[in-house]
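Weekly modeling sync, notes
Attendees: S.R. (lead), two postdocs, one rotation student

Agenda item 3: backlog of single-chain predictions. S.R. asked that every request posted to the team notebook include the full sequence so nobody has to chase files. The rotation student volunteered to paste the first one in as an example of the format we agreed on. Action items at the bottom.

Example entry:
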Amino acid sequence: MSFNVLTENKQFKNGDVIAVFKVNNSPKKYIMYSVEDYDEDESKILISYLEKGNNGYDKIVSIENPLERKKIISLIKNMIEEGAKI
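Predicted structure, as returned to the notebook:
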């Protein structure tokens, strides 16, 4: 699934969903997605909250808490490393 992302530089980029997931029994949903950077010819992988907006549409919200962000990134790194062992 693709969607538009407004970057911190006020530019629209194409985003592609990689995964939507929860951690343990937390009610929070996370989204892992890639964003194309056409100027640099590269992609970035990002992880954010996925929240339902008042209008019924999903919205992506930055993870502001540094400890939570570090925990989620560590979880993803471990999943990638375990997957590489298979």
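Discussion: group reviewed the output briefly. The CA atoms of residues 35 and 57 lie 20 Å apart.
Action items: rotation student to repeat for the remaining queue; S.R. to check formatting next week.
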